[in-house]
Amino acid sequence: MELPESVKNCVKLLYDKKGEDILILDMRELIPEITDYFIIVTGHTHDHILSMEEYVEGEFAKRGLLPHHIEGHRHSRWILMDYGFFIVHIMLKEAREFYSLEELWGDAPRVRYDGEFKEEN
């Protein structure tokens, strides 16, 4: 699957900040009116997910790419960053397990990242 550069860059920024279990879901055939891609990443603590959010937002702002909105910014187990054609879900492990976006959108083609991009079936 060919991913847009901004999606790849976002994933690499999350990885740089020690984000874990990074998964990209291709949503183009499932909810094209909402977004093209979900990026899902797990953080260890609230401070960790907040630092990932701030890092991505800051680095993208330097490139002129600003989010449409951010939800769950403070005191949350899940921060959502909406960049239009991709949405970033930065979650604590327990929130990720509870909401289980991977299972909810089980039909979506997916790519994992752990230093390199790997398509899954």
From TrEMBL:
HAMAP family: Iojap_RsfS. Its main location: cytoplasm. It comes from candidate division WOR-3 bacterium. Keywords: Cytoplasm, Repressor, Translation regulation. This is Ribosomal silencing factor RsfS. Interacts with ribosomal protein uL14 (rplN). The keyword Cell membrane does not apply. GO terms for biological process: cytosolic ribosome assembly; negative regulation of ribosome biogenesis; negative regulation of translation.
